[in-house]
Amino acid sequence: MSHLPVQVLSPLDGRYRAAVSDLGEFLSEAGLNRARVRVEVEWLITLTDRSLFGSAPLTAEQKLALRSLVTDFGQAEIDELATLEATTRHDVKAVEYLVRRRLGKLGLDHISELTHFAATSEDINNLSYALTVRDAVQTVWLPKLNLVIDALRSSALEFRADAMLARTHGQPATPTTMGKELAVFVYRLERIVRQITAGEYLGKFSGATGTFAAHVAAEPSVDWPALSREFVEGLGLGWNPLTTQIESHDWQAELYSRTSHANRILHNLATDIWTYISIGYFRQIPQVGATGSSTMPHKINPIRFENAEANLELSCAILDSLAATLVTSRLQRDLTDSTTQRNIGVGFGHSLLALDNILRGLGEIDIDRALLASDLDSNWEILGEAIQTVIRAEVSAGRSSIKDPYALLKELTRGKRITSDDLAEFVSALDIGAAAKSRLLALTPASYVGLADTLVDYLP
């Protein structure tokens, strides 16, 4: 009998695995189960540290052995959990049984009944998701985003004085510099990064309906909310005291919405870079051995930025859906969040893949200063804004009697291509002060960039 190779449905686990595999450490099923084991183990240690229900504090060696269930979590545990779940039909119960088995091997059978004590599955799950999402964002996704921001910042500084024709509405407009335009994206992304970095990762540990009912029934004298808070905060998470069976997932909705916002800024960056490549402001650096087109040998396609666009859109579709649906749970609990949260890694995976493409793409382009200069020199009519603004200032200062400067320049420039000589002749005949006339005669499209160069210094 022949056996088919493993067939993966998601390209993130196939074609693009190398680019996103670091997320699997946290946002895979194995990563989630390792976190579940951690929560179960730490709850056992918390209960025994307080000598609850006839237990005694574990020795340092016993705690180390227990915690090694997390640090040594590997393929054997993954396989065992799969076998257990085939019987239990319940993933968290399988984790509980795994921990109980390990307690027996460690000679800690006497505390086995404290495993999963007074906990509902969601007590374990919500903390596990908070831990895995936090670690994935902070150790994988954000560092990659920061690499993109660093690359953009470097380019913004390098190109800060490279004047280029702006194209508002796709039409020739007041010049800017390439550096200033890239700095805009750095500023936007840094702002979102600060919001994401300041976000909360919340957890609850309060039983089947968030009331500590089973806890109080077992031992009324314990301050269970205080112990719950200490436990949750001991995991490095924020404590949510008011919940149903589930933690309300508002922090997740906030994080995924902000991540989608970052994705959309990156999407804007990708489309702009693609356009600059299209009009020749950036030239692509040929990569050895690469093929741009299967039939047109001359082509170097901007595939990095096109792939980024598509993956950012996929990421937003998933993360937007999560943000919209996770905040609703019928009454005290429904199971819709269970299946949707399994796609968190897919949402971040497509974003991470896009970041990888953008970072590679930025390293494969260079500015074409000659084309920038040629484009500027072909569009002297864009100085119409400067001329009419100076005339208005002169009129206001009493140094000109020109009526309706805007209409005057509109008549001269709208829908027309004019030369430097045309403008020089026009300015020379203007009824304005000598100093203003001198400034306008010295102005060129390449020098009409205002403070674009110095604005780059506002980068955080």
From TrEMBL:
<dbReference type="InterPro" id="IPR022761">
    <property type="entry name" value="Fumarate_lyase_N"/>
</dbReference>
<comment type="pathway">
    <text>Purine metabolism; IMP biosynthesis via de novo pathway; 5-amino-1-(5-phospho-D-ribosyl)imidazole-4-carboxamide from 5-amino-1-(5-phospho-D-ribosyl)imidazole-4-carboxylate: step 2/2.</text>
</comment>
<dbReference type="InterPro" id="IPR008948">
    <property type="entry name" value="L-Aspartase-like"/>
</dbReference>
<comment type="function">
    <text>Catalyzes two reactions in de novo purine nucleotide biosynthesis. Catalyzes the breakdown of 5-aminoimidazole- (N-succinylocarboxamide) ribotide (SAICAR or 2-[5-amino-1-(5-phospho-beta-D-ribosyl)imidazole-4-carboxamido]succinate) to 5-aminoimidazole-4-carboxamide ribotide (AICAR or 5-amino-1-(5-phospho-beta-D-ribosyl)imidazole-4-carboxamide) and fumarate, and of adenylosuccinate (ADS or N(6)-(1,2-dicarboxyethyl)-AMP) to adenosine monophosphate (AMP) and fumarate.</text>
</comment>
<dbReference type="InterPro" id="IPR013539">
    <property type="entry name" value="PurB_C"/>
</dbReference>
<feature type="domain" description="Adenylosuccinate lyase PurB C-terminal">
    <location>
        <begin position="329"/>
        <end position="449"/>
    </location>
</feature>
<dbReference type="InterPro" id="IPR047136">
    <property type="entry name" value="PurB_bact"/>
</dbReference>
<comment type="pathway">
    <text>Purine metabolism; AMP biosynthesis via de novo pathway; AMP from IMP: step 2/2.</text>
</comment>
<dbReference type="GO" id="GO:0006188">
    <property type="term" value="P:IMP biosynthetic process"/>
</dbReference>
<dbReference type="InterPro" id="IPR000362">
    <property type="entry name" value="Fumarate_lyase_fam"/>
</dbReference>
<dbReference type="Pfam" id="PF00206">
    <property type="entry name" value="Lyase_1"/>
</dbReference>
<dbReference type="InterPro" id="IPR020557">
    <property type="entry name" value="Fumarate_lyase_CS"/>
</dbReference>
<dbReference type="GO" id="GO:0004018">
    <property type="term" value="F:N6-(1,2-dicarboxyethyl)AMP AMP-lyase (fumarate-forming) activity"/>
</dbReference>
<keyword id="KW-0658">Purine biosynthesis</keyword>
<keyword id="KW-0456">Lyase</keyword>
<feature type="domain" description="Fumarate lyase N-terminal">
    <location>
        <begin position="60"/>
        <end position="308"/>
    </location>
</feature>
<dbReference type="Pfam" id="PF08328">
    <property type="entry name" value="ASL_C"/>
</dbReference>
<protein>
    <submittedName>
        <fullName>Adenylosuccinate lyase</fullName>
        <ecNumber>4.3.2.2</ecNumber>
    </submittedName>
</protein>
<dbReference type="InterPro" id="IPR024083">
    <property type="entry name" value="Fumarase/histidase_N"/>
</dbReference>
